[in-house]
């Protein structure tokens, strides 16, 4: 137990010092100086059965303060709840074109198929477009968001700019699991390393992705990643590998980009994580085992070593556990502060990690049972 506790502490010290400072949660969308001119932008929104949110989302884009030309393309992917009609019914100064996405092609994921249809329509309607904004049908944008995204892209010479939307963190499950989700994402893809030119780490947050059309063409378009389920990070990886610079940021304020999807129940959080966790591990049982062991070492060993002192009676083990738990808490606090939560909630990170380990196992189990990757009535994942 002494060796395991020491290993846990060393692992946390490594993450604290050598993992790109991911835990600082300080990579926010920069307030760049406006460019000399703002190029035309096509906002492309894939939507499948999004009646609850689509009007609010399109309405928010209608209120954009973007000074250049802006057109909205809503890609209605076989919705059965009137999503397309609701999008058409929004009022505002921006032109909204609702596209009927053709039946899903074999080998494509639904979202990428819809986005590709939108890109083709935007290319034809706006050949002069300087940027495409890929955004989800549940992400409500502040009026200033697009202007800030384009300014950052133009001034910082980026080919892809992405912002992590603020997720709903209401209710017991939302408070416990949503900040942890953001924390784990930052640990997996340290934003400072993502934003480092020429580095190997690449990622994006799929809810808000601004990309130059020429960068998309350079990688072969969306067809080059047609079957990707973790499409945001795949896109970012391909763009960065092609030699372009990318930027991934947290929202600079609470209202900049907000997800309207509620996360206040266990079922919602389980579905969100289990849908793609095993895909992230490339359907590899060895990586699955390593992930679960790693989660246990990092998040369960420290509190068990400390709180288990009355049972194991080893003061050195308890001290190592306390130190490791302390580092864990310190690294989690900045993310909690971004969600307006109290520092003491950092003590619950081991419980959140335990649940994420369970979700990851469920993701693998459902894939083995042929039920993986289910989303919007479609199933994609395969362990083959």
TrEMBL record:
Q: Which UniProt keywords apply?
A: Glycosyltransferase, Membrane, Transferase, Transmembrane, Transmembrane helix
Report if keyword Transmembrane helix is assigned: yes
The molecular function terms of the Gene Ontology recorded here are: glycosyltransferase activity
Q: Which residues cross the membrane?
A: 286-309, 315-334, 346-365
Q: Which InterPro entries match?
A: Glyco_trans_2_hopen-assoc_HpnB, Nucleotide-diphossugar_trans
Per the record's keyword annotation, is Transferase included, yes or no? yes
Q: Name one GO cellular component term.
A: membrane
Superkingdom assignment: Bacteria
- Give its E.C. classification number: 2.4.-.-
Listed Pfam families: Glyco_tranf_2_3
How is this protein named in the record? Glycosyltransferase
In its UniProt entry, the species of origin is given as Parvularcula maris
